[in-house]
């Protein structure tokens, strides 16, 4: 049986294995949105399709803070670095 999760960008449900899990690391003064490729980092997770359109929708909707239940500034640097590989031919 497939485990379904909702993408925080497009809000569609998809199998957990097709989505990228994200967690908030750091602390209250500076949270970092970190991709959790192994699915083993502690904390509340959010899921996102590996698609630049979903990433842009999540940013526009300001979904990261709500989905991860954190307040304050969010650094998406590690996520942006991963997102650059989504468009690259392999």
Automatic annotation (TrEMBL):
<protein>
    <submittedName>
        <fullName>YlxR family protein</fullName>
    </submittedName>
</protein>
<dbReference type="InterPro" id="IPR037465">
    <property type="entry name" value="YlxR"/>
</dbReference>
<dbReference type="InterPro" id="IPR007393">
    <property type="entry name" value="YlxR_dom"/>
</dbReference>
<dbReference type="Pfam" id="PF04296">
    <property type="entry name" value="YlxR"/>
</dbReference>
<dbReference type="InterPro" id="IPR035931">
    <property type="entry name" value="YlxR-like_sf"/>
</dbReference>
<feature type="domain" description="YlxR">
    <location>
        <begin position="5"/>
        <end position="72"/>
    </location>
</feature>
């Amino acid at each position: 049986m497939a485990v379904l999760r909702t993408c925080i960008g497009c809000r569609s449900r998809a199998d957990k294995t097709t989505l990228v899990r994200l967690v908030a690391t750091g602390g209250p003064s500076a949270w970092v949105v970190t991709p959790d490729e192994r699915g083993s980092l502690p904390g509340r997770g959010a899921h996102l399709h590996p698609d630049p359109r979903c990433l842009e929708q999540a940013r526009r909707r300001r979904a990261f803070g709500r989905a991860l239940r954190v307040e304050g500034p969010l650094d998406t640097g590690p996520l942006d670095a991963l997102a650059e590989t989504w468009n690259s031919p392999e």
